[in-house]
Amino acid sequence: MPNNPTSTEVLTNEWFLFCSLTWHADGNHKPEMAIALTPFSALCGFLPIGRIVSHLEVVPEFAGLIPATVRQTFITSASHPASSLETRKLLKELFTSLMTAEESQFVPALEMLVKRYRTGRVNGRENQLVDLVIRLHDQFPGDIGVFCPFVLNYVELEEGEAIFLGAGEPHAYVSGGRGQG
């Protein structure tokens, strides 16, 4: 959900991981809490910088969607301590580059990635994401959001467990039932 500066805009982000998020048109920030009513999974918040860098290094289909200058700046800055403001700026630039990639660019990359994963040609550092990426692709073929596990945390909750999402934190609910507040 948006933070104060963006919450005044009404925007439906259909590109944002197979679920349309409608941003509310009022001047207040929108933190959320999602409580699992059934087994529930979501992508939320950014992975640690080092893990994103690792994905950029070993997943060429993902790396190819990020402009070279953005990718190189992100990788270079990961080895230097940065302020949280600088880190947020880099994450925003990387995520925006990914989510706004042209369909003519990301659809072939997605097809290559899924084909590679289905045929077992996987780098060891990718192993934990293979099943998730294939499952997301099967549910939402051709969606740019299938690349989100390379930048966002994947969480699974059991009934009664909850997550808190701060205003402006990228997230997408993948499966299961939830109550939201």
Quick rundown:
This protein has 181 residues and is α+β, with helices and mostly antiparallel strands. It has helices at 49-58, 60-63, 68-78, 84-99, 103-118, 127-139, and strands at residues 32-36, 40-46, 152-157, 162-165, 171-175, 178-180.
Largest sheet: 3 strands, antiparallel
The SSE order reads EEHHHHHHEEEE
| Rg value | 16 Å
| Whole-number mean pLDDT | 82
Instruction: Give the overall silhouette.
Output: globular
Q: If strands are numbered along the chain, what order do they take across the biggest sheet?
A: 4-1-6
Q: Find the count of extended strands (DSSP E, 2+ residues).
A: 6
Structural class of the secondary elements?
Answer: alpha+beta
Percent of residues in helices comes to: 25-40%
Q: Uncertain spans, ≥5 residues at pLDDT below 50?
A: 1-26
Total helical elements: 6
Strand content: 15-25%
How far apart, in Å, are the first and last alpha carbons? 12 Å
